[in-house]
Amino acid sequence: MLTDLPNILTLLRIASIPVLVALLSVHSPTANVIACVVYTAACITDYLDGALARRWQQLSELGRMMDPIADKLLVGSLLLALAGLTQLPVYSLYAAIIIMIREILVSGLREYMASQRETLPSTRLAKWKTGIQMVAIGFLIGGDGAAGMLGLSFLPATLIGGILLWFSVIPTVISGWGYLTAGLTRIMAGQSRKSSKISF
User: Fold this and answer.
1) What is the pTM of this model?
2) How far is CA 121 from CA 95, 97, 106, 109, 124, in A?
3) pLDDT tens sequence across 81-98
């Protein structure tokens, strides 16, 4: 149900997106620190909603659908905001483009497979991909200004975020290719079964 706590946490993750974009638009170290706090809380909900759903036996098709959508909305919106605010260093705009292409492709594939009554479960590599992306975006949200406010001026936060974003491209592409091949295999197998029934 939508009112189950795990689903509420997922909705809160989605609700944090406009708050984060607004804070980034302020262009101040203080706003960036606040954005880091909000973003960290949003990332924690990503772990809590699944853990609580499993512990309390509140697993549902709604939650299973909403969780990856919330992750994609959070990552995609923040990458677009950071790109628009020119806060993506070391040519990591291109990494963001690769990430967005993969997410749209996999989402479209999942939607088509659902129409064929097929599923495409998440893989461990995809979860690692999401984790690395979230850490990278955290560094990019804070940036060097937030690092300086926290007494970590020696830490090149923006550069680290850019490098991590590029690093996340590796599991992004590999897991995306895995989803694509697995999806096409299941679709072809399903079509073969339908053809066999028609022939019979």
Assistant:
1) 0.86
2) 25, 24, 11, 12, 10
3) 999 988 899 899 999 999
